[in-house]
Amino acid sequence: MEPIITSTLCVGGIGLASAAALAVAEKYLSVKEDPRINKVTEMLPGANCGGCGYAGCADYARKIVNDNVDLTLCAPGGSECAAAIAAFLGRAAGAVEKRVAIVLCCGDDTEAVRRAAYNGITDCAAAQATAGGDKGCTYGCLGYGSCARVCPVDAIAIVNGLAKVDKTRCIACGKCVDVCPRKLIKLVPAAAEIHVLCSSKDKGPAVKKVCGTGCIGCRICTKFADDGAIVMDGFLAVVDYTKRLTNEEVVAKCPGHCIRSDGAGNKETAAAS
Amino acid sequence: MNTIRSPYTFRGGIHPAYNKELAAGAAIRELPMPARLVVPMSQHLGAPAKPVVKVGDTVKSGQLIGEQNGFISAAVHAPAGGKVAAIENTVSASGRACLAVVIETDGSAERQTMPALKAWRGVDRKELAARIGEAGVVGMGGAGFPTRVKLSPPSDKPIDTVILNGAECEPYLTADHRMMIERAGEISVGAEIIRHVLGAKCLRVAIEDNKPDAIAAMEKAFAEMDGDVAVTVLKTSYPQGSEKQQIYSVTGREVPRGGLPMDVGCVVENVSTAYAVWDAVLNGEPLTRRVISVTGDAVSEPSNLLAPCGTLYADLVAACGGIKGKAAKIISGGPMMGFAVGSLDVPTGKTASGLLLLSASRVTAFTSQACISCGRCVDACPMRLAPAELSQFIEADDIEGAEGIALMDCIECGSCAFVCPARRPLVHHMRRGKAAVMAKRAAAKRG
Q1: What was the pLDDT predicted at B98?
Q2: What pTM was estimated for this model as a whole?
């Protein structure tokens, strides 16, 4: 027989045998998966950020369908996504409050002092482990971009030695919150516009020595803020995000210039960014 | 008593420029008592001591100010009389925040010490170990492991050899070297006490062969001692002073992975620790001061200062004639294992053996490049690790992967980074990786 015919028959035979084996496997060994899981996966945003706490969108969809987990865990999808899935599955959806990450420090390299020259690995945790970091302030942003590197949507940029979050891109997955060695990043309601951008718990004179825009613990803001919307944690003013803070006056009154508004009311920061 | 030239030496290691001549000839000088002392509560390995004084209290020199807080912990005493001005957080040389008692010294000569114990030979071993613990003695070579714990090994781990570590392999530092020359008699008695407490047969004094004067001084001091005593001369090589490497170099025994020196019947104590043991037992003195080398080409008079623990680095530098020219880099400890510090407002502690000030001509900022897989770090690693591979795991944030190839066995000696032709900051990667593993383990413990 011609070699060409032998090989054709061999390959064709193997193909047929395999196809038969697969057909049998399909019939007897197939795992039945709920078809709704695929549908729900398609409804989720597909960012695979892991912000819900599960291993990506498909895993979250599986847990929604099989284990009835909460529909409101997907921050990128928001309320619309939760409502759509709820309608599809015939379940009730709660409202998803849109949140964004914010870096609670505004001491960039112009305002804050660096007490040493750091030339080690470009990583905040590594810098922190070297004599406690090179920043004069032991609470402030080190600016080596560990948060920017873990961000799945490139929402964080390092500007003049300070991490800044782009509110419009942030999907509130919380990866930056976990990676920051100084625990400076918080997830806050996206609707909140006024923030105390300082995390230093030091007393006023100590803060002034290392930063031009730190909270000195003067308490002035607590007098102007809407009822209890700013509270003191020792020598640091902290916004209580469960309350609504709208009084823009606190921004102007802050002698440390660390209370900033990212709403339309504040032209200065709008122009700066 | 005889002198042995050791037939062994550990695998790997490096030969950096030692630069010991800067301060090796400088006799130990006592630092005038500073007006303000910042005494950290964590001058040792383990749990920080718990302050037992309040702000405003008047303390006597030698009084207990921080009590031992757990099994692996050590007591802290006031180096001088004065008033407690504050109890506040300070940043240690390694960058960790820790509680410190700030004392404004008043120059009073009144002392509060334990009674002297001249006839120690008749005293129960446990009692001696307790007394050494009460005096707050810790390992003064660098790690600061409480000596009381080392001197109380479990009964199933008999100790047959005490090694007195006088290698001082770290470049520039000369504190132990000067101690061996100037305090040889006291060190020999301290070593004998340690041997007595452990019931060990052999005593070996390990010194590198680049310190002939220290070898001569130790030979003289130990000449009259009974039993199996010898000065072991080791090959000059870094890190010869590291515990596990030294045990191999002296005895040929290898400490198993994850094990302790007592697993091979050894205990290693630094020569300065032996001096502190002598002081604690024979004079009842707690450990409140130590010799520290202030050296480098950016200090006017490189010196070996006997300084109270809690002296700010700024006071040490001032006592050495100040900074010569401009210091480009300041390192707490030696150049290999020390920590670069960002300010001189850092207090010394029981483990601070050196302060190094280097001028710009001695400091280079390298640009790190990709690993070229040459394997020189593997040859240099005295722990037989593969630093190149470890660092790549850590760079990729694969902490489990790094842990799997023995990341935690790294002793951070810096030999790998020293030989790396691509100038990779290998030790920095290891420290970061080890910190991540420790954080992970702590989180697992919390649940």
Answers
A1: 87
A2: 0.81
CA–CA gap between residue A93 and residue A178 (Å, rounded) = 28
**Which domains are delineated in chain A?**
35-89 (1.10.15.40), 99-272 (3.30.70.20)
Which amino acid is present at B271? V
ipTM: 0.71
Which residues of B fall within a CB distance of 8 Å from A132? Answer: 91, 95-97, 342
The packing angle between helices B426-446 and B387-395, to 10°, is 60
Are residues B267 and B198 in contact, defined by beta-carbon separation less than 8 angstroms? yes
Give pLDDT tens digits for B394-408.
998 899 999 999 999
B96 and chain A: CB distance < 8 Å anywhere? yes
Residue B166 has which token pair?
């006088």
Q: State how many domains chain B has.
A: 2
Q: What is the crossing angle of helices A78-89 and A57-67, to 10°?
A: 40
Q: How far, CA to CA in Å, does A206 sit from each of A131, A138, B79?
A: 19, 11, 28
Check if the beta carbon of residue A54 is closer than 8 Å to that of residue A60: yes
Listed in order, strand segments (DSSP E) in B303-427 are: 303-308, 329-332, 339-340, 354-358
Which A residues, 105 through 164, put their C-beta within 8 Å of a C-beta on chain B? 115-117, 119-121, 123, 125-126, 128-134, 138
**Per-residue confidence band for A263, with pLDDT thresholds at 50, 70 and 90:** low
Does B361 touch chain A if contact means CB atoms closer than 8 Å?
no
From CA B310, how far away is CA B51, in angstroms rounded? 15
The residue segments making up the domain with residue B199 are: 2-24+115-282
Chain B residue closest to A139 (CA)?
Answer: B97
The values of phi and psi at residue A126, to 5°, are -65, -40
Q: What is the DSSP letter of B333?
A: S
In a domain, B173, yes or no: yes
pLDDT in the model for residue A48:
86
B97 contacts A126? CB cut-off 8 A: no
Pick B343's closest partner by Cβ from A115, A119, A128: A115
Neighbour count for residue A190 (Cβ, 10 Å): 17
Which B residues in the span 220-239 are in contact with A, Cβ-Cβ below 8 Å?
Answer: none
Distances (CA, A) of B362 to B17, B259, B357, B365: 12, 38, 10, 10
Distance CA B39, CA A205 (A): 23
H or E segment and range at residue B302 = none
DSSP category for residue A199: -
**Chain B residues close to A116, C-beta within 8 Å:** 340-343
Look at residue B396 and tell me if it is in a domain: yes
